[in-house]
Amino acid sequence: MNFNNCHNINSFRQLAKQKLPSPIFNYIDGAADDEVTYSRNTKSFEDADLVPNVLRGVEDVDLTTNVFGKNISMPIYCAPTAVQRLFHYQGERAVAKAASKFGTMFGVSSLSTVSVEEIEKISNSPKMFQFYFHKDRALNQDLLDRAKNSNFDVLALTVDTITGGNRERDLRTGFTIPPKLTLQSMLEFALKPSWFLNHITSSPFELPHLKNYVKEGTNTVTSIGEYFSTMLDQNMSWKDAEDLNSKWGGQFALKGIMSVEDAKKAVDIGCSAVIVSNHGGRQLDGSRAPFDQLKEIVDAVGDKVDVICEGGIKRGTHVLKALSLGAKACSGGRMYLYALAAAGQRGVEKALSIMKNEIERDMKLMGCKKISELSRKNLRFRN
Question: For the chain, which domains are there?
Answer without folding.
Answer: 3-373 (3.20.20.70)
